[in-house]
Write a structure and sequence with these properties.
This protein has 64 residues and is α+β, with helices and mostly antiparallel strands. The longest helix has 11 residues, at 40-50. β1 (27-29) and β2 form a beta hairpin. The chain has helices spanning 3-9, 40-50, and strands at 27-29, 35-37. The model has no long low-confidence stretch (mean pLDDT 80). The chain has one domain (3-9, 22-61).
Amino acid sequence: MSEDFINIIQPEHGRTSCSDDNLSNGFYTRDGVNWHGRCTRCMYLEIARNGDIPREFNWEECEG
């Protein structure tokens, strides 16, 4: 997934505390097992830049 494509499908961040330079609301976990997401754009940018999704991430629990 390219960042150009992300700009089309998810042009805005879902939270005011994140930006393209600060992906603070992408994939996160409190216990190292249950992965969550708060901002869809942050998650997509993390995938584009890092090339992977945490194996235990649950898309159904995504807040973004």
